UniProtKB/TrEMBL annotation:
Gene3D superfamilies: Leucine Aminopeptidase, subunit E, domain 1, Zn peptidases. Belongs to the peptidase M17 family. PROSITE patterns: CYTOSOL_AP (PS00631). Residues 320-327 form the Cytosol aminopeptidase domain. This is Probable cytosol aminopeptidase. Pfam families: Peptidase_M17, Peptidase_M17_N. Its EC number is 3.4.11.1, 3.4.11.10. GO terms for molecular function: aminopeptidase activity. Mn(2+) 2 binds at residues 240, 245, 263, 324. It comes from Fusobacterium mortiferum ATCC 9817.
Amino acid sequence: MKVVDKLEKFYDRNLILVVEGETNYCEYMSESEKELVERLKERNNFTGKKGEVLSLNFIQNDRLISMDILGFGKKEEISDNLFREVIFKYLSDKKGSILISTNTKELVKVEILCEIVGNINYSFDEFKEKKSEKLDVEFFNIELTNLEESLILNEATDVIRNLVDLPANIINPITLAERTVELGKEFGFEVEVLDDNKIQELGMNLLYSVGKASVTKPRLIVMRYFGDRDSKDIMGLVGKGLTYDTGGLCIKPADSMMNMKDDMTGGATVIGAMCAIAKNRLKKNVVAVVPACENAINGNSYRPGDIIKSMNGKYVEIINTDAEGRLALADAITYIVRNEKVSEIIDVATLTGAMMVALGTFTTGVFSNRDEVYSLLEKSCSKYGERIWRMPLDEEFAEDLKSDVADLKHMGARWGGAISAAKFLEIFAEGTPWTHMDIAGTAYNNSSKWYKKGASGVHVRGLYEYCKNR
Ligand code: BES
Ligand code: MN
Ligand code: ZN
């Protein structure tokens, strides 16, 4: 992807973006071409409504030129998300080289074009003989502010989408840690991997218990980037890294287990955010932690009824071994607060089916005990078309977590399951500003207005932007 200011080669397609009712098309067209276009527009009743396409094919200097004029509707109704939707729909089924141009420069952000092309060009085809073709897009004289930043965000997002799409026979706690070490070298952040012995030494028994039935034992992946040594502020990111979730002894039905290789998406998201933060050399300090483990089944599995001492010191009664994410996260949150001394935490997790029931698959549910954090996060995510919605943290849900036999149990009553899970996590933040993003619904896409089917990569960009502006 690049911006050009001269027509120096032929493209498979020339795409012109127009606003409804506008006539002049773009700088590189001759007067006679413009006249031709006007006549064809009239003949086809083309006005440039949202998503409307006028396709023209003509011969110029013995070459076949294919030109599409794509409408975006009325100028005053065009928003960033409408722009995403229209351009995504148009480009999704295209191949080859495309030159994009427009005369309504103030409405078209090259960053968004770049983001959408990046979304479309990602493919998971390592295990297919036939690879998918990529779009080769150039922009003609379109105003750009920071194309390089957008390209780095695409790169970071693609890395994590690939980690999510890779199956659990390839990505386990150990290989996830190894890949993160490689990414740290490539993008410029420090990675420390704590193994299962160290995890037990630190008293992270919740994390250890969730993962102990797997042949590949838990790892705590710690990433550090210090871009501002003069500041004491350290942003803390935590991501659920369940490389597979069978449900444990409370095993999931087969249908529900199918996508559970995606249960490390939160972890991948914070790894991706670190890649973007480090490569763009933000002047910020950020530490990210991924508790990586597999919720598997063997004779050593943790059980409903077990009482386990957390790193925090509180004893936790296990109710359902499928509510494993909050256990792994609880110890990771204690670790990042106490051992890394972060000033604020955002955790990201495919935590509850209840979140999907509540909000569906287009919007992430966000819980926060700080209003100003939520509003900045909302602003940061929406810049990249990432939809979030604030959820409540009612005190009654904390009451529900009282246990008859231990300090706490890890699950409440049936209703409001996403909230009781959040409430459980909040305890371990010990008063540090804390925000939790439940991406169970948004991590993976089947259909959406501007995301391709598969791992969405959602919130890599939003978290990057949040850290940048914090
Ligand atoms: N990883 C799942 C949550 C999930 C479900 C993510 C569907 C994506 C799609 C989580 O570990 C889980 O199993 N949660 C249980 C909790 C329940 C046992 C309290 C759930 O939501 O059913
Ligand atoms: Mn589970
Ligand atoms: Zn899970």
